[in-house]
Write a structure and sequence with these properties.
The longest helix is centred in the first third of the chain and has 26 residues. The N terminus is likely disordered. It is built from three helices and 25 strands. It has four domains: 39 residues; 99 residues, Sandwich (Jelly Rolls); 118 residues, Jelly Rolls, CATH 2.60.120; 94 residues, Galactose-binding domain-like (Jelly Rolls). It is mainly β and 379 residues long. 10% of the residues lie in helices and 59% in strands. Strands 3, 4, 6, 9, 11, 13, 16 and 18 form an eight-stranded antiparallel sheet that branches. Strands 1, 2, 20, 23 and 25 form a five-stranded antiparallel sheet that branches.
């Protein structure tokens, strides 16, 4: 009985501690919680805890002990095409003309915007007809012809005739000397189609190359898969590296895996910009990778400047794109920060290692892993 009673306070204490731990986990900030429990963190956790004072923000990609690196440039959609805004003017209408009466139709439509306006069309279906149909835009005749029953008619409206508010008149021609006859048109689905240029024909991707990487650069290759979903004829396709043209093709609507070498003289120490451009069509570029080889083993390295350190605290943040352990050393101005984590993020107070002026950071991995984002910020 004595032993049983003595154990009750211990059991109670253990239960209380357990409850407190559970409550602590429940009220933890979500990003700290996912890191503690080693589960996938929401995307917004990438920026949590960081201020607007970002001193360095890069996407290192794959890091390893090998004498090569792969910069993952992601994917992109490039397109240039016309897309219509449809304005229904009437479900149905009729026009007619004869010696004993005339029925004309006057319609009004607005131009949404003249910016990027490519073309405008009047479209309708002829239900029944006799003779010629005449169409006037702002008192200027733009159509005079016959159209048989069941036909869909599309009439391009001259852009130079258009105003913000436009008058459209439809009428039949006179039947001539046959005073007993009548010319007419019964129409349905009368619509104005305004075509606007939708353009995202170029996109830029960037990657950072440190001093040691740039100095040891031996060869480079760009790889990607290109897929065309729409194109009339052929289109020009160009790729630039740091404003230097490295590839120029005239391609059709294809699906192809492309890989080609790039002269290392086009690369720069620091940020490198790769620009992709098409003249028209709709293309998806996926798996875009810049692969580089070095003449010796090099490590990803970066620089950032600090104007004034007094009173500031600094944080290193990394988000990983691979699971498993990430091991290695991070050298900051000669000081060593040990990287040993299985989490998908890593944060470290680096205040004691930061100096006023230029700071040098280098990653020396012990195994292979991916870093989606690396940031140094003032907190």
């Amino acid at each position: 009985m004595m032993n049983k009673k003595a154990s009750n306070p211990v059991s109670t204490l253990i239960i209380i501690i357990g409850v407190l731990i559970v409550l602590y986990v429940l009220i933890m900030p979500p990003c700290d919680k996912c890191e503690l429990l080693k589960t996938d963190c929401p995307s917004y956790c990438e920026d949590e805890g960081a201020s607007e004072d970002i001193l360095l923000s890069v996407e290192p990609g794959e890091v390893s002990l090998a004498d090569r690196r792969t910069y993952d440039l992601g994917s992109m959609n490039l397109y240039s095409h016309s897309e219509p805004n449809i304005d229904e003017l009437a479900e149905s209408l009729s026009v007619s003309k004869g010696w004993f009466g005339t029925i004309n139709q006057d319609l009004v439509f607005n131009i949404d915007s003249f910016s990027d306006l490519d073309s405008v069309e009047l479209s309708f279906v002829v239900v029944d007809s006799r003779g010629d149909l005449k169409v006037y835009l702002n008192d200027r005749q733009i159509f005079s012809d016959s159209a048989s029953s069941g036909r869909t008619v599309e009439i391009e409206l001259p852009v130079s005739y258009l105003e913000e508010v436009n008058d459209l008149r439809l009428e039949s021609e006179m039947p001539g000397l046959a005073f007993w006859a009548r010319n007419y048109y019964d129409l349905r689905d009368i619509e104005i189609l305004q075509y606007y240029e939708i353009v995202h024909s170029s996109e830029e991707k960037s990657f950072f190359m440190g001093d040691s990487e740039f100095d040891s650069l031996e060869a480079a290759e760009l790889e990607f898969t290109i897929y065309c979903s729409s194109l009339d004829g052929d289109t020009g396709f160009k790729i630039y590296l740091n404003n230097e043209l490295v590839r120029s093709d005239n391609i059709g609507c294809i699906r192809d895996d492309i890989s080609f070498s790039i002269d290392t003289s086009y690369f720069e120490q620091g940020t490198n910009e790769v620009k992709f451009l098409v003249d028209n069509g709709n293309f998806l570029l996926s798996g875009v990778e810049m692969k580089v080889w070095f003449d010796e083993t090099v490590y990803p390295s970066y620089e950032f400047d600090v104007d004034e350190k007094f009173g500031n605290e600094f944080e290193l943040y990394m988000k990983f794109g691979s699971s498993g352990d990430k091991n290695g050393d991070i050298y900051l101005n000669g000081d060593t920060i040990v990287l040993d984590t299985g989490s998908n993020t890593f944060r470290e107070d680096i205040t004691d290692h930061v100096v006023v002026g230029t700071n040098y950071l280098e990653i020396r991995p012990d195994n292979e892993f991916e870093i989606d984002k690396l940031k140094v910020s003032i907190v």
